[in-house]
UniProtKB/TrEMBL annotation:
The keyword Cell membrane does not apply. This is D-isomer specific 2-hydroxyacid dehydrogenase NAD-binding domain-containing protein. InterPro entries: D-isomer_DH_NAD-bd, NAD(P)-bd_dom_sf. GO terms for molecular function: NAD binding; oxidoreductase activity, acting on the CH-OH group of donors, NAD or NADP as acceptor. SUPFAM superfamilies: Formate/glycerate dehydrogenase catalytic domain-like, NAD(P)-binding Rossmann-fold domains. It comes from the Bacteria. Pfam families: 2-Hacid_dh_C. Residues 102-277 form the D-isomer specific 2-hydroxyacid dehydrogenase NAD-binding domain. Keywords: NAD, Oxidoreductase. Transmembrane segments: none annotated.
């Protein structure tokens, strides 16, 4: 065989055999060191050593399937230069992220966080806690894609009013109204809860700064499960200290792992989780249909149907 398929994702042999059967014209290789990049056309997974391969220009790479959703750390310009297509796992985290968002929200609004702290001190804190009802509250979801739409549907189940923000501003099922990115300040002005699910691009880096937080409804809750670098952490802390915001739930951070000395850990108005919002109990099983659908399309010389990355737009 003159073509190779390199699999860098830890599937068991039965799954690898399925890939072999689907890509019968390819020799399947499962170790980076065993790959001959003068023959490898497809890579399922990612390894930093692929950067050296791409930079060498001496390869036959045509398509890389990532096992993750984020692409901001990858050499997208280099991939474009070398003519290598890229697909991500964007969308597979839809349910886990939506559940995590509401888990963090309810921990705050229903007094669960405060109760946990009081319980640690063997204190009955009923009089200290002032629960909030989400019913009829307004939520603005910035990044009204697959995940944002699932969050909107879940918000509707709680009886919330839903606003979305995306590039087009076109109406989307589950949203009462949708704004374009250019009208972000207007979209957040009346929201009781603002949720960021945006990918990281040059346009979204540092987007959530003190200037924007001042446009929020006073006392709003801010949730970030998008990318840490889209939030200026120092500005977020200032907004919380100045009571522009009442609470922030963060799963992603400008620097990860979050340093032990970070004030985020100890701030009384922050719930920080260690980038786990997208975790699920059967990650590889959930990823597999995405791989198989794209692999079959590639073999059939069709458009890659699931989450192909626009290398120019960088998401």
């Amino acid at each position: 065989m003159s073509k190779e398929l390199l699999v860098l994702i830890g599937y068991e042999e039965d799954v690898l055999e399925t890939f072999r059967e689907m890509a019968s014209e390819y020799q399947l290789v499962s170790e980076f060191e065993e790959a001959d990049f003068s023959k490898v056309e497809i890579v399922l997974g990612w390894d930093e050593r692929l950067v050296d391969v791409l930079e060498s220009g001496e390869h036959q790479l045509k398509w890389i399937q990532l096992p993750t959703a984020g692409v901001d750390k990858l050499p997208l310009d280099l991939l474009a230069q070398e003519g290598v297509r890229l697909t991500s796992a964007s969308g597979m985290h839809t349910h886990s992220l939506a559940e995590s968002i509401f888990g963090m929200l309810l921990a705050r609004t229903r007094g669960i966080l405060q109760s946990v702290e009081a319980s640690k001190a063997s204190r009955w804190a009923q009089e200290e806690i002032e629960p909030v009802v989400l019913f009829d509250k307004s939520v603005t979801i910035i990044g009204a894609g697959k995940i944002g739409t699932e969050v909107a549907h879940m918000a509707k189940a709680f009886g919330m009013q839903t606003t979305g923000v995306n590039r087009s501003g076109g109406q989307i099922d589950g949203f009462d109204k949708v704004y374009t990115n250019d009208n972000l300040a207007e979209a957040v002005a009346d929201a009781d809860v603002v949720i960021n699910i945006l990918p990281l691009t040059p346009e979204t880096t540092g987007l959530f700064n003190l200037s924007l937080f001042k446009q929020f409804k006073p006392g709003a809750i801010f949730v970030n499960v998008g990318r840490g670098e889209s939030v200026v952490t120092a500005d977020l802390l200032t907004a919380l200290d100045q009571e522009l915001l009442s609470f922030a739930a963060l799963d992603v951070f400008e620097e990860e792992p979050l340093p032990a000395e970070s004030p985020v850990y100890t701030h009384s108005k922050i719930l920080a989780t260690p980038h786990i919002a997208g975790f699920m109990d059967d990650y590889l099983g959930t990823l597999r249909p995405i791989i198989e659908e794209n692999l079959q399309a590639f073999i059939d010389r069709e458009e890659l149907p699931v989450s192909e990355v626009d290398l120019e737009r960088k998401y």
